[in-house]
Amino acid sequence: MRGSDLVTVAGMALVNVFLVSAISASGLAGWLIAGVVVSALASYVALARLLNSTIARVTPDSIVLQHRPLPWPGSRVIGAGEISDIGSKVQPIKWDFGGLSRHSVFARCGRGNVTLYELSDVDGEAAAAIASDIRDRLGL
Question: Which of 1, 52, 97, 103 is most buried, taking the most CB atoms under 10 A from its CB?
Answer without folding.
Answer: 103
